Amino acid sequence: MNEGGVPAHTAATRRNRAVRASRRVASASRRYLPALVIILLVSLAAGLFAGSYSHSLARPTPGSLAAGTVADEAVPPGFVSQLDRQIGTRLSLETYPSPYAAEQVIDTQRVFAVISDEGSPRAVVLEVVPAAGASIARLLSGAAPAAARSAHMSLTVRQSHPLQPTDP
């Protein structure tokens, strides 16, 4: 007998049972460890994907905006670069041989704006096309005055094919 009055073989049996039980728990936890790691990695990847996807949708910006110019009218490069900075993207300028050709492109809604001069090197006309994209027309109309001020130019904004009042 030991000090507590319990036979020695009973105390040893209890210790053995406790050791075996802890080994079973350790064995079971080791068995599920790879699955747990995989679940954690998949959860992390899903969270990162959802977060980055939501962040990119929160601030959509186009890579470039289609705009036109007329060949015989000089478009001030200072105005175009300032407008690029103001809208946070690049204007993709295509030159058309005549005002009639530029008007045809506007009619087919292949450009969002046409930039031309007003007969003076310090004046510019921005003709926006709300029918091609109302939000882009608002963006260009809102950013153009600041761009013209930065380029030290006068600006005239015109709407070609304005939307009907009932259009959203």
Short description:
The protein has 168 residues and is of the alpha/beta class.
Strand-helix topology:
Elements: H1 8-58, E1 64-70, H2 77-87, E2 90-96, H3 99-107, E3 113-117, E4 123-128, H4 134-150, E5 154-159
Parallel strand pairs: 1-2, 1-3, 4-5
Antiparallel strand pairs: 3-4
Number of strands: 5
* Architecture per CATH nomenclature, i.e. the level-2 architecture of the largest domain: 3-Layer(aba) Sandwich
Domain count: the total is 2
Structural class: alpha/beta
**SS summary, helix count:** 4
Element order: H for helix, E for strand: HEHEHEEHE
Q: What proportion of the residues form beta strands (DSSP E)?
A: 15-25%
The CATH C-level class name of the largest domain: Alpha Beta
Instruction: Tell me the span between the first and last alpha carbons.
Output: 94 Å
Q: Which consecutive residue ranges, at least 5 long each, have pLDDT under 50?
A: none
Characterize the biggest β-sheet.
5 strands, mixed
Tell me the strand order in the biggest sheet.
2-1-3-4-5
Observed structural traits:
5 strands, about 170 residues, 2 domains, five-stranded mixed β-sheet, D-Maltodextrin-Binding Protein, domain 2, alpha/beta
